[in-house]
Amino acid sequence: MKAAASYDSDQLLDAILISLDDDKAEEVVKINLRGKSEMGDWMVIASGRSTRQVSAMAEHLTDKLKQDYGLITKTEGKDTGDWVLIDTGDVIVHLFRPEVREFYQLEKMWTPGSQDVLAVDPSKAP
Description:
InterPro entries: Iojap/RsfS/C7orf30, NT_sf. Keywords: Cytoplasm, Repressor, Translation regulation. Interacts with ribosomal protein uL14 (rplN). It holds the Pfam family RsfS. By secondary structure, the chain is α+β, with helices and mostly antiparallel strands. The protein is built from four helices and six strands, in the order αββαβββααβ. Helix 1 (9-22) crosses helix 2. The chain is globular. The relative contact order is 0.22.
């Protein structure tokens, strides 16, 4: 296990984005929270096609973060798979079924009219 100081939030963000890409997450966006919120540096929002995919992505991601970074994440909603929240401390991850994501529209709530919402292009992943 790595010590907490052996990585920064940007490295953690990269690992999260790679994991979501590997699991075929859709419409992945990252939102820079620095200077906007004390809850973390980044927010990632992504969709899965079904409750099964959303739950599987969440489980895979939490396992990867535990194995690679020694992080025990706070996770809510994995059993239902409609909306899963994964809190790493530095990066907040929201995984949705498309209908639930459309209903809550977190991107609009956090960055109305802002350029801080960045769609992630999987072909340019590190």
